[in-house]
Amino acid sequence: MPRLSHAVFAAWLLGPSITHACPDYSTDPSLLVALEPGATKGALSDDEKACLEQRYASAEQQTTKDKISRVLLVNAYAYSTSYWAELVQRHLDEVDRSDPDIAYLYAFYLFNTDKEAAPEVVRWTEVALERRDVWTGEVFVGRVFGLMRLRAVAAQAQWIQAEEVVAREGTDESRAEAGRLKNQVKTYSREWVDFARVAGREPGEAIRLCLSVASNAMACGIDEDDLPR
Questions:
Q1: R_g over Cα of the chain
Q2: From 193's CA, which of 52, 119, 140, 183 has a CA 20 to 30 Å away?
Q3: pTM for the full model?
């Protein structure tokens, strides 16, 4: 059996190595600025990504982890939303659960890729809406309207699934859960109606959803004359 050289054995044992000098982003995050142009294009090399991961792991301050993680997120989003979603989950678990921009994107990603993720979609729309004041102008209006729509639609999906459970099982517990989720749809769709009006957006879809679960038009904040035709 041929003998491996020490260098080859070490490479095999340790796995892929960083072949270029790895800046110490963990102690000097300002060095990350040099990576931003490439990251926005999804063009960071494997060595650069490995270096960032190494410095992310060694960073002691959460603010530094946050900055390194964001560069990795921007880079991944440009070429692989599935890989980006993995990094988002890590960011939310380990760094910052309250970032409205990340929560906004993640909620839409989950809705579009996982039909069973309605509870998580509602959760992350709520996170984004809690900090919506960071947005201004048309960005504020567009994102809040989109999030309120997404939250209401995802809640409706949960309610429909709960009603299917009631049809199968017919237990008091399943009926109570379906009732709770129905009220949630009513609450979210009513908030969507109210925001649409204040923001000058078309409220028709929101009104129709609200009426599908409300006992009367007034519960949706509308008069009979306002009902969509």
A1: 24
A2: 119
A3: 0.82
Residue type, 119: P
* Axis-axis angle for helices 62-77, 81-94 (nearest 10): 170
pLDDT in tens, 164-192: 999 999 899 999 999 999 999 999 999 99
Are the CB atoms for 100 and 131 separated by under 8 Å? yes
Question: In the Cβ-directed half-sphere of 75, how many Cα atoms lie within 13 Å?
Answer: 22
Could you give the CA distance from residue 171 to residue 197 in angstroms, rounded to a whole number?
39
Burial of 1 (0-12, 13-18, 19+ CB in 10 A): exposed
| Pairwise CA distance, residues 229 & 209, whole Å | 14
DSSP letter for 4, please: P
SS3 169: helix
